[in-house]
User: Fold this.
Amino acid sequence: MSTALATAEKGSSLWADAWIKLSRNHLALFGLAVVLTLCLVSLLTPWIAPYGYEQQNLMLGASPPSAEHWLGTDVFGRDMLTRIMYGGRVSLLVGFIATAVALLIGVLWGAVAGFVGGRVDTVMMRMVDILYALPFMIFIVLLMVVFGRNIFLLFFAIGAVEWLTMARIVRGQVMSLRRQEFVEAAHSLGLSQWAIIRRHIIPNTLGPVIVYTTLTIPSVMLLEAFLSFLGLGIQPPQSSWGLLINYGVETMEEYPWLLIFPGIALSLTLFALNFLGDGLRDALDPRASKD
Amino acid sequence: MLRFAAGRLLQAIPVLLVVITATFLLVHSAPGGPFSAEKAVPAEVIKALEAQYQLDQPLWKQYVSYLGDIVNGNFGPSFKYPGRSVNELIAAGLPITAELGLYAMLIAVLIGISAGVFASLRPNTLQDYVPMSAAMLGICMPSFLLGPLLVLIFGIYLEWLPVSGWGDIPGDKILPSITLGAAYAAYIARLSRGQMLEVLSQDYIRTARAKGLPEPLIVVKHALRGGLIPVVAFLGPAFAGLLGGSFVVETIFQIPGLGRFYVQAAFNRDYTMILGMTIFFASLIILFNLLSDMLAIWLNPKLRHGSGAAKP
Assistant:
């Protein structure tokens, strides 16, 4: 609360402040750079991939990294760099779409609960509590078994798991904002409910939502890779990093690069997203100390 | 405390009922019966099988009788392994998975807390950066990558440790336990560092320092108790995560535990097995969440007398 006042005195917006803080955090900037590069590469993959996705070279077979194939080839002589690029598209897509599903459900649920309050809030949050207690990892495995291994179901299933925390964060934020003096002041000045939502509630809720969204993407990607590794996620001929790691493990004794490169791709991405999320949290959290 | 525990136990009953009902309906709404995937079987045989597993009854009758069985602790027969019951498979796998989970949890708690506390004592120095970077690496390196890499390095290249199995060769329990525990050690290290930093800046720590108490005593006796609260609250969810992690670790290291049975059952579409194990896992997870909540309350006197509504 006091920091909110301090921000007002200083006259710089939360976003300008946040950007300055973020740009001082080298790890977060590194994370941002990696994430942007990855998104760009994923978008352009069909045009910039060095080889075709299904292009085989059975004469070559599995070969270690070389000038022609920077990351080597798999047992069918397929270029690993190309396969990792295409796999990354799927991994990122699952990450973004499932997170979007979680975002949509979580924000709506939390905002309604926080706004309406009272008995509606109690019932809605009790439901979240109950769902929290359920073993979701196990439920996803169950869903994949029952409905077949469908990529759209995967988005839905993962998104359905991850919205709970988002709902709690948004509700908490909305509840506490409603009781703040500046919202009361806006009320007494005669602003309409919608104007308050637009002018005060949404901008002040955006920060935690962005932070949590950034942190949800890596956990979703991890979940997808986990399922694909077990053979319950992405199915061939589609490919994802989890699936590539799964193949890599089978032949790691003879051809370790088939495990190591997809592993690096996945870990680096998770690393970057986590650093970016942590940096954003430090930058956007109004409670964080100003130094 | 007792009232709280009793209340939470009572709350667990509707949760369990939701789990059982949802799982039951999901499994029974699956396209294709459990026997239809196999090669052509005479219709009479399928009929007989369905009668044997009561699949010819209306759904609500199956549900009621299944509920009755569960209350009696009977999860029914396995579709995949004829003549074996889900109970037998759980009884065979549980001790192994429990042992694996225990070692992993021990590694996670011991290494995690010591690394976190160690890092929090000198924030923003090398003593902080090194363990915390390692923790970040541990979080970003999923178990299905860490496990194979450990096998590659310690099992295949260095030949120090066995690459698979459980309790067959001495030392074969080390790599699976580390693989399963590493990510949780990393989380716990981050959690305990953050909380310790907060606790160490509290007034009562300043008072203790002003009284001239030696620093180790302050850390261990005064700060640690408060510093461990989020760690303890994390143990419940961590337990659920360990169960999920055991799917991967038991598959990689070919350990005949519950996780591997579950993944196999998922591949084979062994419906009764999935149903039974899901319900079993859910009960375990609910129980552990309850235990970790109670531990957190015992550690935090503020929660003990309040309504308990203040959830982080």
